[in-house]
Amino acid sequence: MSRLIPYLNPENKEQASANWRKVEAILGITLPCITDRDYLVRLNIDQNVAPDSLRLETKLKTQSAWKVRQAWPLVVFKHIQADYVLTGNESVIIVDNAGGTALITLPAAANASSSRYTVIQKSALVTVTLAAAAGETVNGGATVALPNTAFIGRDVVCDGVEWYAF
Is residue 3 within 8 Å of residue 23, measured between CB atoms? Predict the structure, then answer.
């Protein structure tokens, strides 16, 4: 999904600068200011990369290719209360069930290179276990359990071969 932002490049360079400052304030970041009226600017949600990312793209009006100026990953929360298989569309998984167990199965490492997840356990009464896909490992084993402590979390990253929880 892309949105052109024509008001970022009006004829008046002072107005263009003011509009850029507004976008920076909304996003909470510093953007490259493009005040040349021959440029088009758009914000693009890239759903082909996990996790999705918000990209600031520009191009000259005479060119067809867009250039990525800056990209930010989008945080997608998923609340679960039972076993769950990660799909790659989430980035923060919050285990809400107040008792019992939750087995969170990680995607195949070969399809998840550079992926990162954060798993948060809300209750000390739940047992949360992270499981690698069949035949793969997380921290050298098939599973990793979170400590039974309320509001504890683990980050999980993948190098394309195996998973690491820390």
Answer: no
Cα distance between residue 44 and residue 98, in whole Å: 38
Rg (CA), the chain: 21
DSSP state for residue 141 in the 8-state scheme = B
The structure's pTM equals: 0.61
Collapse the DSSP code of 160 into the 3-class scheme (helix H, G, I; strand E, B; otherwise coil) and give the result. coil
Give CA–CA dist 9/2, Å, rounded: 17
Token digits for 89?
Answer: 């569309």
- Rounded to whole angstroms, how far apart are CA atoms 74 and 60? 27
Higher pLDDT pick, 62 / 46: 62
Q: Sign of dihedral through CA atoms 4, 33, 67, 157?
A: negative
Q: What is the per-residue pLDDT across 133-165, written as a single tens digit (0 to 9) for each?
A: 999 999 999 999 999 899 999 999 999 999 999
Instruction: Dump the DSSP string for 38-107.
Output: TEEEEEEEE-SSSSPEEEEEEEETT-S--EEEEEEEPP-EEEESS-EE--SS-SEEEE--SSEEEEEEPP
Report the alpha-carbon distance of residue 106 to residue 133 in Å, rounded.
6
